[in-house]
Input
Amino acid sequence: MEVPCVRAAREDGETVRELLAERALLDHDHEITVADGRIFIPVTDDEEVSDEYTVVTHDAPARETQVMPADVLGFEPTYERLGDVVLVDEDDEGRAERIAAAVMDSALPVKTVLNRASKVTGEFRTREWDHLAGDGARTVHREYGCEFALDIAEVYFSPRLATERHRVTEKIEAGERVVDMFAGVGPFAIPAAKRGADVVAVDVNPVAIEYLRENARRNGVEDRIEAIEGDVRAVAADYENWADRLVMNLPHSADEFLDAAVRLAGDDCLVHYYDIQHESDPYGPGERAIRAAADTYEVTVETRQSVRSYAPHELNVRLDVRLRA
Output
C-alpha cells in the first residue's frame, strides 16, 4: 500500500526513526522497508514532518502486530533509547520496575534498562543509575551516520541532543579547524571530522577520552582528531589563535572557560556557546559574558537558539557568536 514515508540513508535509519517517534509521527500500522540502500519509514502526518527530511510515497506492507511496552503496561511509558540500553526516569520504584519488565518483554531490541538515580554531578558530569534489568551500561549508539561506543555510567551523553548536535555539525566545512572544548565521547567532534574538519577534542574525563579515540577509529576519522585528556584552560596555550570554530557545550559553567576560548579563537572564529538560564533572560547573561571576555574582538551574535526546556522556567540555549579580530 502506498503511504507517506520519510526516506533516509540506511545508516541513518535508527536515528531518524527515534526522532520521528519522539514527535509521535511514526505510523505503526505499516512496516519500515529498505530499497536501493535507502530506508523508508512510514509516518502518520507528512505535513508535520520537519523540512530537514524527505517525504515520499512508498509501498509499505501492513505491519504484523508487535508487542510494545505500552501493550504490556496499558499506558505509554516515557523512556529514552541509547543503543540497546533503555533509560527511564521514575521516582516510583515499583513503576520503574514495571516499565523495565515491559520493555524487556516487548519487541524492542534492548539488553539493559536503567533508571536515573541522581542528577548529573561532579567534574565528569556523570550520574548514578539503578539497574532495573539486564547487566552493564556499555552500548553503541548511532545517530546521523555516526557510531558512538560509551558506558553511560562512566561518561556524560544525552541522546535527546541528537538533533541539536546535527544542527551545529552539518554547517561545518572541510578544512575548518575546530576545538571541542568539552568533547565527551565525541558527539560533536566525530561528525565534524567526518565533514572534513581538523578537530582538537579536549575532556577532563579519561574514560571519555578513551571512548573518543575508539569512536574516531570506528568512524574512520582518527587521522583528523587530536584527543587530549585535560583541562582545556591548560591546553589553550598550545593552540593559541588556532580555531575557526569552538564548541562550548558545558551549560552552567561555560563562562568560566571564556578566557581559554578567546585564547583559542583565530582571527575569525564562530563560537557555539551553550548556557542554562531563566526564561526571563535566557541569552543575556551568556552574551554579556562573551562580550566582556572577548573585548579585543568584534563580537556579533549570529544565532540565539532555544535548545530545550531544562527545568521549570529554565531553558537550555545556544548562542552562535562570531569573533573577528
Notes: The mean pLDDT is 94.
